Amino acid sequence: MERYVRSRGISVDYHWLHIAEDGQESKEDPPISEFISLIKSDKLSLVLARRSDGQLILLVTGLDTKSRRDARTRPIRNSVAWVGSVRSNADGSDADDKATFDEATWRMLAAQSLKGSLTEIIDSVVTSSKDGSFQVDHNKLKDFETASKKTAGNSDAEPKRQIGKISEKLKNKLANELEERCLPLTHGPLVVVTEFKARKTLEGAKVWRGLSTLLVNNFDEFPEDWEEINSGNMSWNPGNSTRENILKNWDKKWWSLSLIIIVLGLPLAWWKLPFLQVAINPSPTSISFSTATPNPQSSSISSTPSPTVSPQKSPPSSKFKIICTASISEDNRGIDLKVETSNLKEKTMYVQMSNTVNEYPHQEGKIITDINWVYNFEKLNGNGTPLTNEKYYILGSLESRDTTFFQAKINELKTTCSEKNTPGDYCFVCITPK
Amino acid sequence: MPEEYKITMLGPSGVGKTSLLTVMWDRLAATIGEANLQLTPEPESLVILQNCLKDIKSLANRGNFQAKGGIEGTEEPFIYSFDVGNMGASNPALRLHFHDYPGGWIESDPKNINYVINTIQQSIAVLIAIDAPALMEPQQQNTWKGDWHEEFNRPTTITTLFQKAYQGVNSPKPKLVILAPVKCEKYIRGRHSEALLEQVKKGYPSLLGTLQADALSGKIAVVVTPVQTVGNVIFNAVQGQEPPPRFSFNQVGNGGYDPRNSEQPLRYLLRFLLRQYGDRSRFLGHRFIRRMFDVDAPFIKAATVVAQGCKHDNGFTVLQGHNLLN
Questions:
Q1: What is the ipTM of this complex?
Q2: Structure pTM?
C-alpha cells in the first residue's frame, strides 16, 4: 500500500508527499491523473477507482483543517491518496490476502470520508512544519488504516450503476454499502463523489456510484435519489482525459485495422491513385501527404510545395510525412487530431477545424512536442452538446495561416476528403461522428 | 462557431488570481447588459465562480474589523470558460478560456513550470495579478519601498516564464499582457495611483524590457489596470515577527462588497480582441465574412461600447502597443 498526502504550509504551495512505510517523505504525485478531471478537488471529493494495471486507488480531497492557515490567512485543506494492489482479477480469480486487506481498508476509509470522520483524523495527522511546508505523522496514519479494516463486510457487489445528487442521505447510503459490500471487479472510476461536476461527466466516466451537485443547466440535473444508469459495458476507457491514454486507445483500436487496410488497400491505391504513391495514411479516417523536406537543420519550416509530385522526382529518402488521423473523443464533444511526424518536433503547426456549417477559426500555432503529437479540439459543438453527425474537416499546416494554399484548402471544404492532391506541408482529415 | 481564445492567469500563490477572475466576471457581467452584451460562464465555471464570489462577499460582510481568509487556494488547474455575445443571440461571438492553476506551479517542479510556459505560449492574453500592498509597502518619507514585492509577486520568476514562452518566436501573433495590481483600495482611494503606476514600472523592469524587445514590441500590448478587489477592505499593516509576513486588512466605512474597476481588465481584453477579431476576419477571407456578417455586426457594435469604457487615468495606462488596441 502506498500513501500520499497533499497539503500546504504557511508559504509552500499545495503539493503531494509520498509517505514511505518507514515514514520517509518525498515529493511525488500519486498515479491519479486520469481521475482528477472527474472531481473538483478544492472541495470535499472522493474517487475510488481501479486502474488498468489493477491498482486500487482511494483519493479523498478537500478535507478541511481546523486551524491551519497560509500566509494570506486562507484556510488550508488536506488531500490523501492510497494506492494498493488489486482485490481480485477481472476474470474472477482469487485475490491474495494482502490484496483483500487493501480493498476492505479502502472501502472503510471511503465510508468514513463520506460520513465526515476522515476530515478530523487527517487533520490530526498533518501539521504545518517550520520550513513553511507540512509534515505527516505516518504512525498515526497507519494506526488509523489498521483500525479501519476490522469491520468491513464482504458481500458481493451490487452490479447496477447509479448516480444521484449529493446529499447526506445518499452519502450515508453509499457509505453503508461500501462498509458491507465489495467493489465491482471492473476497471476505471468506481465511486465518484464531488461537487460542481455535470451529470455527463460522471455518466461518461462509467462510474459505478456517482454523486455530484446540481448544476444550473437543467440538462445536467441529478436525481434526488439514486437513479440507475445504463449498465452496458462497465469497463472504463479514460478516452481523452490524458494524452497518453489517447495514444494508448488509438493503438488498441486502430492499429490492427489500419494494418489490414494498408495490406489490402495499398496495392489497390497504388494502382488506382497514382498521387497516393507518395504516402499512405494508415487510418480509415485520415489522409496523409508527403511534402518536400526542408533541411532538418534549418530553422525555416517553409518548404517547397509539390503540387504534382511524382515518385521519381521525390524519392522517399528525401521526404518527411505528416500523417494525420482523427477520432471522436470519448465524451462525443470533441475531436482528437493525432499527428505523426518524423522530424517535426518543436515545429509549429497551425490547426483549424471546420464543418459543413461553421468554421472553427481559432487558427493558433501549436508546438509539435512529440513524434506522436495530439491536438484536442474540445467542446466543438458548445458545452454539453454532443457533436452532430455532419462531417468535420481538420486542417493542419506547418505554414502560417495566411498562406495561399491554406486558404485554397478552406475553399475546398465544400468537397469531400477525396480531394486530397493538394500541395503544402499540411494534413487534411475529415471525420463524421457516429 | 465562436472564436476561441485562451487567457493565462499568472501570479504566485496567494496573490489573488482566482479572486481577480471572480470579480472581473461579476462586475463585467453586471454592467455589459446595458450594451446588449452578455458574458456567460459554462455551467461548471459558473457554479465555482458563484462559490468564490460568496467567499469574497463574506470577507467584506463578516462584520469584523479585521478581514481574514478569502478564497481558498487552488490545488489543481482549472479552465474557466465564458461565452461572449449579444443578449439573446443563439450563438456567442467569442469563447474565452481562462487558465487558472496553483500559484506555486510557477516555481515548483519542471513539469508544472512547463505547463505554465505552454499555457502562456498558447494564450492570446496573459493577466498578471500583482499584490499591490507587497508592491507598495511600507511608505517611508513619502517613498514607497515595496519591501515584499520580490517575495510575494515573484517578478523575476514571472519574467523568466515570459522569456521562455516567447523565446525563439520569430513572428509572434499579437498578444496582450495585463498587469493588474489587486487589493489597491488604499492606494487608489488615497490618491496614490501615480505612485502605484511607478511602482509597477519599477517592480517589473526586466519583464517590461523583455516585452519591449524589437522582436516583440510591435506585437505585444501592455496595459496596467489597478483593481480594488473587494472594495471596503483596506490594507492595514504587516503583522508577525517571523517570516513570512502576514498582511492584515481592515474593513472601512460600512463594509460590504463594493469592488471598483474590477471589470477593467476584461474591458481591455475585449478591446484587444475586437481588434484581432477584425484582423482574423480579413485573413480568413470573404466567405467567412459573408457567412458571419449578420452575426458580427451587432456584436462588434455592442463590444465596442464596452471597450470604450476602458479607463485611462488614475493608475490605468497603456504602456505599449496602442496600435493593437485602437
A1: 0.81
A2: 0.70
